[in-house]
Design goal:
The termini are far apart. Strand 4, helix 4 and strand 5 form a beta-alpha-beta unit. It is globular and about 60 Å long. The strands form three sheets. It has a five-stranded parallel sheet, sandwiched between helices. The protein is of the alpha/beta class and 246 residues long. The chain folds into two domains: 124 residues, Rossmann fold (3-Layer(aba) Sandwich), CATH 3.40.50.2300; 106 residues, Orthogonal Bundle (Arc Repressor Mutant, subunit A), CATH 1.10.10. Helices cover 46% and strands 22% of the residues. The protein is built from nine helices and twelve strands. Helix 2 packs parallel to helix 3 and helix 6 crosses helix 8.
């Protein structure tokens, strides 16, 4: 496999314990990070906390069925890829899934290798789409970081962080206006295409993630401007002082 999808964070919602553990072992052996949930409600709560990059969802889940779960996830992040895994093969179920915006619908039983290649196919399409949308952008200097929106990489020294598509688009928006205020609505409309309660909650999760990535350089921070938005601040004096005192 030539495409770098290692460490992609996958949310797996599957109430069949044996199948769930088998899929976790198989996907992790192929370089993915997988979190297993056995009911719809805990899966949704897990998604709001972690902001998974990919979702595999069974339809027949206790508490909240897979269609409802998919709809709620898509409300928070319409771009996150979703593959439905289901023993139900009715045309109506498949149509409903695709109307909700799923990327694929796999009927059980299925071969693990087939699932793997379908996941890779979806990720390849997504990667190609992002590459086309960011082809005019070159790498951006952010303090001691070098941010490359085309490869979704944030690099500092010898360490690199591969970012999700949403993380990259939000950071690109902030980096294009360093030390200037970017409103929440502006970010949400640019990244999600709409600004509402659900996209606002999702934005909060992504801002928290970006802050954790940038934390290693004290001269860089994302500052919240109450009731307005955010400012990506780069303090050159702080960086010079730390270099001087080394």
């Amino acid at each position: 496999m030539t495409d770098n999808f290692e460490n992609t964070r996958i949310l797996l919602a599957e109430d069949d314990t044996n199948l769930g553990f088998l899929l976790v072992d198989f996907l992790e052996s192929n370089g993915f990070e997988v979190k297993l949930y056995r009911d719809g409600q805990s899966a949704f709560q897990g998604f709001t906390r972690t902001g998974a990059e990919f979702c595999l969802i069974d339809i027949m889940l206790p508490g909240m069925d897979g269609f409802t779960l998919t709809g709620k996830i898509k409300e928070l992040n319409s771009d996150v890829p979703v593959i439905i895994l289901s023993a139900r093969s009715l045309k109506e179920d498949k149509i409903l899934g695709f109307r909700l915006g799923v990327d694929d619908y796999i009927t059980k039983p299925f071969e693990e290798e087939e699932l793997l290649y379908r996941i890779r196919a979806v990720l390849n399409r997504l990667k190609h789409s992002v590459k086309n949308s960011t082809q005019d952008f070159t790498a951006i200097k952010i303090g001691e970081f070098l941010f490359d929106p085309q490869s979704l990489m944030l690099t500092r020294g010898g360490s690199s962080q591969r970012m999700t598509i949403k993380e990259s688009r939000i950071l690109l928006k902030l980096a294009g206006s360093q030390n200037k205020i970017v409103t929440r609505d502006e970010i949400m409309i640019d990244v999600w295409g709409e600004a509402d309660y659900y996209t606002g909650r999702s934005l909060d999760v992504f801002i928290s993630k970006l802050r954790s990535y940038l934390r290693s350089d004290p001269s860089v921070q994302i500052t919240t401007i109450p009731t307005l938005g955010y400012k990506l601040e780069v303090n050159a004096q702080e960086r010079l002082f730390r270099n001087f005192t080394k």
